Amino acid sequence: MSKFFNTSNRLSALGNFGTDPGSLSADIYIPKNFPKNGPLVVVLHGSTQSAESYDLGSGWSTLADECGIALLFPGQRLANSLIGSFNWFETGDSQRDGGEPLSIRHMIKQVVDDHDIDPARIFITGMSSGGAMTSVMLATYPEVFAGGAIIAGLPYGTANNMMEAIIRMHGFGSPSDKQLDALVRGASEFSGPWPTISVWHGGIDETVDNINANSIVGQWQKIHKVEGPPTRVETVDDYPREVWCDAGGRVVIEQYIIGDMGHGTPISADGDEGLGEAGKYMLEVGISSTRHIADFWGLTGTREANGAKPKTAA
């Protein structure tokens, strides 16, 4: 067993969940205080991580206990990727109704059916390859999600093979915003309302250049009809938060660029509201992306929900 997949965790395996064309694993965490018709957050780990290690670092299950949130952790298998990376750039794993996206879709349906999840409050987040796969899921199954959060990730459809993926990760050759918009619109027959988007990236990320964060924002701006500069810029925990609001004043896109942070998930482990544990790619920078993403989605009770409700049930 790889050191990346050691298990000393709070998660439990999800048994059968329909067909699994992507050959993924699945773990869940359902807190004792989870209410009927409560929300679900799907959490995707990064390369060299596991569901358990990402939960430990990010603190999602701790927040789930606090706020009554069900969690689903799809996991990559080493047989599919020697570094445990989701295959977001492979044609067979980046389209609707096939490969890894369909496996994750079937997991979601199983958890919704088993635990009385509110189908209008399903969200997804991920870091690095998990962030790029979050982009895939938001594009290919937009009707499922009220919102998504992409951490150190890449836009949907920016690469179709390993070589292109490496080039895009280093910030070169990304399609135009117009092309990226068309890729999302062509990934399904959905016409809206679209998931809200939260983007997080390190300002000095040398693994996935932060130009990809701007490309993710650009990919979703036209879809949400919020092209141009941000509606406003505010300071949250000493970091800038850019927000784009729709015509009704609802925040549909937010972006955090964490200045001196490299490649990883921003955490804040100290204090009464601390979450997670610092480690490789889990970076203590004094702001908890986990808590603020949950705030953005209206799951913590401290901020009005910003998420659009999907049209169809899971």
UniProtKB/TrEMBL annotation:
Keywords in alphabetical order: Hydrolase, Signal
Domain of life: Bacteria
Pfam family, one: Esterase_PHB
SUPFAM superfamilies from the UniProt entry: alpha/beta-Hydrolases
UniProt name for this protein: Poly(Hydroxyalkanoate) depolymerase family esterase
Keyword set includes Hydrolase: yes
GO MF term (any one): hydrolase activity
